[in-house]
Amino acid sequence: MGYAPQVESNSGYRRSTGSPRGEARRQELLERVTDDLAVNGLVDFSLRRAARAAGTTHKVLLYHFDGADDLLRQAVARLRQRRIDHAIASLSEERGPSTLAERVRVVWPMLMGEEPGLARVLDQAMGLAMYDPDRHRELGRHASAQYLPILTSLCPPEWSEDRKRGVAEMILACLRGFLLERLISGDRAGVEAGFESLLRALEREEQISAGDE
């Protein structure tokens, strides 16, 4: 892999106590680091690089964050949330598509979209989670924790929570697989064909549900 965030210890530094002022400062720093990640990716990420981007020192970052890996996780999560917010906004703009398949079609370009900064960094983050799971497993876990709620919310409200969760897991697994296939093979036509098959499966799932009522 061509990217490996550098580990830097925060031993000896006291942490932010979570006061309103301290939290506001922490959020400001996190936003600046997130913007830097969106532009420059994960290559050679370190506290010192993050400090330069945030206009502060690595000691200040260690006051607010539990080391480089903690800061990286939070910045990646914030980038991912931007993507999710875009997906939610796209649903609103479409004035409430009526079926599960239609809703997935609307959010697909945003959840697995083309925004250069978001796409590159989030792809790199998943690569780290697979390449070094002992250290970066949480990057993958946090991704699922962020994506699954929106995918669950796309399901018909009358479905049971277990059914919503199962279908949301299937959708997430398929979309991730399509993304990986697109990255590896560059076969956009094949990915789009697979995505259309997923939509047909979701249509059948919803039809079965309607027939059971």
UniProtKB/TrEMBL annotation:
What GO molecular function annotations does the UniProt record carry, in alphabetical order? DNA binding
The protein's matches in InterPro entries, at most eight in alphabetical order, are given as: Homeodomain-like_sf, HTH_TetR
Residue ranges of the region described as Disordered: 1-24
Q: Which UniProt keywords apply?
A: DNA-binding
Domain called HTH tetR-type: residue spans: 23-83
Ranges of Polar residues compositional bias? 7-19
Q: Which residues bind DNA?
A: 46-65
- What's the protein here called? TetR/AcrR family transcriptional regulator
Identify the species of origin.
Answer: Streptacidiphilus fuscans
